[in-house]
Every structure is written in structure tokens, then in C-alpha cells.
């Protein structure tokens, strides 16, 4: 069965990417992006080509993913997340080494080093 133009795939790419942006859970963007990109070629191309969908970057992800997200986010502002409670796959130093060349694009930084402030 062919997908008709009256389906979601008939929407302009910009609108489709905006829908994906609103759908993707910022706590697990790699998982959501992966699932959506497996639907069809159009969705994969939309996800891979939209800088906005790659702006939430966490140390919970492997270094190769962090590099990929930094590259695909192109000139967009990025949100960085490093938390020792989030089971980081990268040390803070390694995460900052990857993110440092992009400091002009940092929108927010979430840090949790596991210390209590009394």
C-alpha cells in the first residue's frame, strides 16, 4: 500500500521536523530519534537533516553519539547535560573536550556532580 499525499508524509518537511521536535523526549533523544528514523526514508532524512533535533546533548550517551549530535546540530544553540546520577558514559573531562569548541552555541548546561550543599 502506497502512502498518499494526504498522509503525514505529505506535510512540508519543516512542519514534519517541528512535529518530531515536539514528540522527542529530551530525556531520551537518541532512543526517540532512532525509533522515528526507522519508520521510512523520508523520516530518517528529516531527522538527520534537522539541526533542531540534535540540540539536546547528554553525557549519558557514548562519545561517538555526542560527536554526531554536535555535528548535526550545526549552528543551532545546544543544551548540555552532565550528571553523575545519570550514569554518564563519558567523564566530565571527555564531555567538555568534545563540547568546548562549541561554547558559543551553549544555551544551557545542566550539571549534577553528586555533592550535597547543606
Automatic annotation (TrEMBL):
This is F-box domain-containing protein. InterPro entries: F-box-like_dom_sf, F-box_dom. Pfam families: F-box-like. Residues 8-58 form the F-box domain. The lineage of its organism: Eukaryota, Fungi, Dikarya, Basidiomycota, Agaricomycotina.
